[in-house]
Amino acid sequence: MQITIGTQPFAATQTEALVTYLFENGDPVQGRISEIDQSTNGLLKRLAKSGELTGKTLEMTLIHAPAGLQAARLLLVGAGKREKFDSAALRKISGSALRYLKSRGVHNFVFAVREDNATEDSAQAVAEGSIAADFESDKYKTDKKNDKSIESVQVAGYSDSERAAGERGLARGTVIGEAQNFARDLINEPSNKLTPKILAEKAEAMARQAGLSVDVLDERRIADLKMGALLSVAQGSIEPPRMIVIIYSPAKAPKAGAPVLGIVGKAVTFDTGGISIKPSEGMEKMKYDMAGGATMLGVMRALATLKPNVKVICVVPATENMPGGRAQKPGDIQTAMSGKTIEVLNTDAEGRLILADAIHYAKQLGATHLVDAATLTGAIVVALASINVGVFGGGDQAWTDKVLASAKAAGEKMWQMPMDDEYREYIKGTVADIQNIGSGKGGGSITGAWFIREFAGDTPWVHLDIAGTAWNDDAKSWLAKGPTGVALRTLVHLAMSY
Ligand code: BES
Ligand code: ZN
Ligand code: ZN
Q1: Helical H runs in 193-290?
Q2: Which residue in 86, 111, 165, 293 could disulfide with 265, CB within 3.0 to 4.6 Å?
Q3: pLDDT of residue 80
Q4: Is the full-model pTM beyond 0.85?
Q5: Which of 377, 380, 465 to mutate to test the pocket of ligand 1 (most atoms within 8 A of CB)?
Q6: pLDDT for position 146
Q7: How far apart are alpha carbons 289 and 367 in whole angstroms?
Q8: Where are the alpha helices (DSSP H) in 307-464?
Q9: Which residues, in sequence order, are CB contacts of 359 under 8 Å at separation 6+?
Q10: How much distance in Å is there from the Cα of 268 to the middle of ligand 3?
Q11: CB of 444 closer than 6 A to ligand 1?
Q12: Which secondary structure element, helix H or strand E, spans residue 64, and what is its range?
């Protein structure tokens, strides 16, 4: 799909569809899109007056062969209340328009931005929204109808002097959108097509192509480094684990003592629960238990092109969680790489085990500030549903605030959860240093976060629980059903903010 900036008048634009968006409550059609109204003899105002077009969020009004326009169709998308309009809204509007037109066999369209929106940010949002919306989970379908595809999108409404800004936004949005789809494609892969070894191979290929340095630790090096927590999860599977490390270094070497960002993502390529086995209903979804890891790989892919001024170390522990003759059993005691001992009371709380060693290793490699993303707990789905990512911070609230600010700027909903010291008591060990599930009642996402925090120690750290948000159970008008790639935009923004 090609995305370009357009500066020509709307009425004379030859395209399969001209798309724009209208606000609620009698939108005074003004600025450059009033040209559409004038050329069509007041069509926009007439539609609004008739009550047929309300401007309610993502309402679609399609007009064929609009008199006065060269476009074959005019698509008007509801933009909701003008006061609430932002880049996140624009991302959804452009994504919804793309999916609406694509399903109707349209191959190219012109997306006209409104007054005040001919900016770099808007172009970025339209590129991100369109590219994410174009993603389909049909890789393994053999009867694909290939005629339904979008070949080109033009983002119009820019003046000649605004073109350069628009093009910068498109370039950045394209890199981010494609990185998000790269992650989503990995998340979608079933576990028989994506073992830890295959994930590592794909990560390595991506890193080499992007010019990033990469080091994949195999089971022997993992054992040599005494990563006992990761090994304890992996031992139940015939598939060997991998610890994937990718490093981005800025061209201009950072000064000594400069911050180093460490991003860590859980990659359990399939989580059966192990001996504490999960119920069979819905278990197939546990192929997405590597979403955190895939997202971090996508972040690195984007950063290789966007080139932030900070060194970034990405660590992805990859394993299956299987029951088997060699699997760890409830009550087993494991020694993590850090030396801490862990009583594994539930083998289904495996994400925190592999993150323990990954976080410790990221620190050893030099990370000074950490963020991890993991499909960690079912409890976060209870607390925040599929709307917000759960955010858990260590002692450094300024670092948590920085991550939350990036989430806001990137248009990803995240909500900070409490981390009072009292919750730490719940994971205090009786026979080992700590236990991998809480002894108290409830607060499952918080005790999970506290477990990881034990390994982050004093290093500023934020944990993102994406169990509820990494997978869309129902298709949205702007996004297909399946993997979302959530948190990628936030982390790219975070790295770019240095
Ligand atoms: N991968 C799951 C968490 C999960 C649940 C992800 C739903 C996506 C959707 C994780 O490994 C897990 O099983 N967690 C347990 C922890 C419990 C045993 C303390 C859970 O949430 O039930
Ligand atoms: Zn589990
Ligand atoms: Zn899991």
Answers
A1: 196-210, 219-224, 228-234
A2: 293
A3: 96
A4: yes
A5: 377
A6: 64
A7: 24
A8: 351-364, 379-384, 397-410, 421-424, 444-456
A9: 262, 264, 315, 370, 372, 452, 455, 456, 461
A10: 6
A11: yes
A12: strand 60-64
